[in-house]
Amino acid sequence: MDIFDILGPIMVGPSSSHTAGAARIGQMARALLGSQPVKARIHLHGSFAETGAGHGTDRALVGGLLGMKPDDLRIPFAFDEAEKVGLDYEIDTVELRDAHPNTALLEVWDGSGKQLQMQAASLGGGRIVVTQLDGIAVNFTGSYNTLLIRNQDEYGAVAAVTGQLSRMRINVANMSLCRHKRGGDALMVIETDQHLRPLQVDTLRRISGILSVTYYDKEEEENASFDTVDR
Amino acid sequence: MLRSIQWIVDESEKTGKLFWEVVLEDDTEERQVSRHESMAQMLTIWSAMQEAADSYTGTRRSVSGLVGGDGLKMRQYNLRGKNLAGDYVGEVIAEALSMAESNACMRRIVAAPTAGACGVLPAVLLPLYYREELSQQQVLEALYVASGIGAVIAHRASIAGASGGCQAEIGTASAMAAGALVALRGGNARAIAHAVSITLKNLMGLVCDPVAGLVEVPCVKRNVIGAMNAVSAADMALAGIESRIGVDEVVDAMGEVGRRMPMELRETALGGLAATPTGQAVKARMAQGKAADMLEKQ
Which of B46, B106, B174 is the best substitution to test chain A (most A C-beta atoms within 10 A)? Predict the structure, then answer.
């Protein structure tokens, strides 16, 4: 923890884990979807389910989906904002296995029908971790620039991507690879120290066997600028 | 990375740098930023604290309806001029209540070190800032002192109620505030360390027992004891009074007490005040969703 984890975050109350973290989870889902969701099903687990209403966890998650940052003064009124922009949301509780007490499972849809399912936990101090993406177990926090690369599960895909990154002088801070089953789609999560330019992201997309690339730039968190193309 | 308050004191005495400079230089090294960038970020924090205080009228109520309005009551009482605490401490009490209420009412605050304890540090700083016309630079230096203290406690013990009880939240905030006050009055690094020790010792063992799991009761008023404790510890340290137990040992002991604290008394709302009949009744009322729309009705 650095000193601005101690003095900060600047946030709408009352709880860094139940309010600020919840807003970040909503923001992350919006960002990974790539555009404004029109429909959301939000499932609260553990302490989020038990004390969420009193902590504004529900409002913060909806606010995040609408692009509100944890310090956005509209968070208490996020339900009204959702109505204004036509976000159809439902919130209920769920019991997940082996999940952190402050976990939310979100299913979101954009206007074109594209769907994303994301499970994330709020770890305290406003920090979050995404633990599942479309059913695949993942582990990233959004505190790095993050590449989410879906590829066909065949030899050479990882080497091709990391080789390209190395030629771009992009250093990999953390990396993981997950798949449903052998030979199916796999998901690479790569956290990088450097920023990637849109052109560089496009280069990765053109690698053979790569199905889609989503790039999350941590410096652009505020406008939730994501860049994704599906083939 | 800051791992020891004694190390900061030793570094200060060895190099002649003040406590806050040691913390600042550690930050520039740790995050690879310039002094200017670091201080600009600290100024953002200070501005947010001031804005939170300035914009709060004290009339809002929390989602559960349990808190709100007490900061205003305290201010009005202070104005009658007969409070026991005197001018400065009277304002400290009012500000601690106001800021913590403001957090409970979903307004914008600065977690210091947590949202639940956000009232302690601004409560001791803001009245001094306005009364004595401290310069912005002085306040920023005090905030570095506070954040350095908090960082060490986070590393050696805990700043989360769920792992260390309320002593980890209000206790840490109180130690940060005490150190900041000593620095503002020209106390050296050693005096800051003694103030931290005294503060933490006096709140050691404080449990986290929030009614219905909400950051409201007893959290709001505990911000007051955190701030008052900081003022008395700072005055003691400035008077030359010393802690008999070394500062890092006190922090380690606080961490140990937190780990031994039963789960029921660590933010789970299963013990202490949360388990009282009144606490249970509030929980039941919240579960029925009766209070959930309080915000909209205001």
Answer: B106
